[in-house]
Amino acid sequence: MERCCRRYLKVTEVCGQSWCELQVLYGFEYPLVLKAEKERAEVKAGASIHLAREREVHDVVQVCVVTREDRQAVKFLNLLGMISALQTGCCVRELPAIGMLEGVFMVGVIDELRYSDKGELVLNELKTRRHKSLPSEAQAKGHRLQVGLYKLLFDGMVRGSLSRDQVVEHLELRLERALGPGVLEHARNLGFRVAAFGDVLDLLLVNLKYCELPCIDLLRLEYCHQGSGDIVGSQDVPFDEDQLRAQLRHYLSFWFGQREPRGVDIEDAWKCRMCSYAEHCEWRRGSSQGSVTVHTDKKLK
Ligand code: SF4
Question: What residues line ligand 1, using a CB cutoff of 6 Å?
C-alpha cells in the first residue's frame, strides 16, 4: 500500500485481484492505460445504464464543491438521506459503503438496496453484459466477492462500528475544514445545520449508530444486456463470512507487502488476450513463470 501511496482500497480493486492481481498493480503503474480502459464504449454504456437506474429513485442536484472535504461531505449527506429512505422502506441506489475490513479501510458503492415482499433487505448488484449471456465463472467469482464485501461494510456501518478516527486517518480529511457555500446550501436544503466537515461526519456517525436498520439479508447479482437493457438473468449469492474473510486476507496480504503479486494461472492464460497490459507484462513474458508464454500461445491458437 505504501508503494502505491494508498491509505484505503476500493472494493473493486480487491475484486479485480480475483481476475488478475498483476493487472490491478499495472493499473497503478500505467494510469493512462487505465484511463483509456475506463473510456471504452462498453464501460461508458454500463455507466449510463447505472445512472439511468439511479435517476429512477433519486433526484439529481448540482452541488458546487471546492475541497476534498466538500466532496466527501456531499457523499455523507447523500448517505444520510439514504438512511432515512431505508427507514421508511424505500429503495436506494448508489449507496456509499465504507469501513475497516481485516485491517484495511475500504470504500465501495452499493448499486441498490430494497426490501423484498417478505421484508428482507436485499442488495442487488447490477452488472451490464455486452452479450446476452451470463458471465463465466472467472468473472462471477469477482462479482460474488464484491457483493460479500459490500455486505460486510454495510452491516458494519449500521452496527455503528465506523469511527471518526478511521474516516479522518484513512481518507486524509480535515475535520475543521469549513464547508464551501455550495455544500452549505445543499445541507440547509436537506434540513441540516452544519459548518465544517467534522459536523457532517459526526451527524453521519450518530445517525448510523441509532438508525436501527437491519443488516443485509440477501445478496443478488443481476445481469443486464447493454444494448437492449433486457435482463439476462439473476443469481442469489450465498454468504459465508469466514470463507469471505479468509479470501479477503489472502488478497490483502499482497497489499501488506507479505507476498509478490500473481499473474494468471496457466489455465487462465486466455485472460491475457484481452488485457491492456499484455505488452508490458512480465508474468506473461515468462520471466516469473517460464512456461506461461508457451501455454498462452498454444491456447490462443
Ligand atoms: Fe495478468 Fe495476463 Fe494481463 Fe499479465 S497479461 S496482467 S498475467 S491478465
Answer: 20, 22-23, 26, 263-264, 271-272, 275, 277-278, 281, 283-284
Distance of CA 215 to the CA centre of its chain: 18
pLDDT in tens, 209-223: 999 999 999 999 999
Give the three cell numbers for residue 59: 433526484
Rounded distance from Cα 275 to ligand 1 centre (Å):
6
Ligand 1 mean position, distance from CA 19 (Å): 9
User: Can you tell me the distance from the alpha carbon of 177 to that of 196, in angstroms, rounded to the nearest whole number?
Assistant: 5
**pTM for this one?**
0.89
Do residues 283 and 22 lie in contact, with contact meaning Cβ atoms separated by under 8 Å? Answer: yes
Per-residue pLDDT reduced to its tens digit, 51-62 = 777 777 778 899
CA distances (Å), 26 to each of 15, 107, 119, 129, 279, in order? 15, 20, 43, 24, 11
Backbone angles phi, psi at 105, to 5 degrees: -80, 130
Q: Across all residues in the chain, what is the average pLDDT?
A: 90
SS3 (DSSP) at 299? helix
pLDDT, residue 296, reads 38
Q: pLDDT tens digit string along 108-117?
A: 999 999 999 9
> Is residue 223 within a helix (H) or strand (E), and if so which, with residue range?
strand 218-225
What average pLDDT does the segment 263-267 reach? 92
Does the structure show a pLDDT above 80 at 42? no
Q: How many CB atoms lie within 10 A of CB 43?
A: 11
Give the nearest ligand 1 atom to 292 CA: 7
Q: How far is the CA of 21 from the centre of ligand 1 (A)?
A: 8
Alpha helices in the chain (DSSP H): 11-17, 21-29, 31-38, 41-57, 68-87, 137-158, 164-171, 181-189, 197-210, 241-255, 282-285, 292-300
Q: Is residue 35 scored above 80 in pLDDT?
A: no
- Closest atom of ligand 1 to 272 CA is 2
Question: What residue owns the CA closest to ligand 1's atom 4?
Answer: 281
